[in-house]
Predict the structure.
Amino acid sequence: MKVQDTAPGNETALIPFAGKKQGTLYYLRRDWQLYFLLLIPLAFVLVFKYAPMSGLVLAFKDYKIAHGFWSSEWVGLEVFKDIFAKPDFARAIRNTLLLNVSDLIFSFTMPIILSLLLNEVKNAFFKRVNQTLLYLPHFLSWVIIGAIAYQLLGEGTGMINNLIANLGGTRIPFLQENVNWLISYIFIGVWQSMGWGTIIYLAAISGINPELYEAAVVDGAGRWRKMWNITLPSIRVTIVTLLILNLGHVMAGSFERVFALANKATTEFTTTIPVLVYRWGIEGGNFSRATALGLFQAVVGLVLILIADRVAKKLGEDGVI
């Protein structure tokens, strides 16, 4: 800040002057450590996210390994016409939407409910123990979860079915019958993911001004009224943001989850888009068809995110873009 002499009487006033604008090199030299740390995630994104996009050209070629990546014949949209005409494609679309919309209904709402309930727990030790136990399944791979599921829910030797049989009941084919498999799939997913979602919502709840709750208590509000009128509106931005991001996965889903829980007795709902990409590409060696299906899935997911973001903005929310 510089001092400028003003008018008669030699009175002075502090008048700010804009300093000389520094160039890019100045900031690079000043904060080089931060930029160096930024290179690591930036390199990861470029190498593993953007560089593989060059492979999308396979969706428009009749790719032959002998001809190579660029020398294979260009066929335009013929590969897409081929996959759209296959019966497995319509079945995969149906199953992918069914599984992921069901996940959106249950796996998305459960963490919200759970975080609201945990927020009302006053015993700090009990609250921390529950948070830890709920969060642990998030670190387990779907291979391990699938093995645990068959050990517990298997019709022949599953622990739960053994208990039912010992009590005189009839064994239930939790994972060996199509409808039961679908229900088990959804609730296993809720168990695996609700801890992670709960942590996010609890972090958002911790940022709410405590004075709002104090004012509500003065007005005679109970716990349910405070949750409905203070907590939920205060975390609405977080809910909308996560909802938009989850909508982008409606056409994707988890290959590992379906593959770990699938078996030969239940094939009605296990043919999804990621599974079909695996079958066509890895098992069948038709990389053009698998790439085209993956590209179709990605484009639909992007469109859904853009639509959800625009709807959120129309309703007065910030959106994510």
Remarks:
- The domain at 73-138+193-314 is CATH 1.10.3720.10 (MetI-like fold).
- The mean pLDDT is 85.
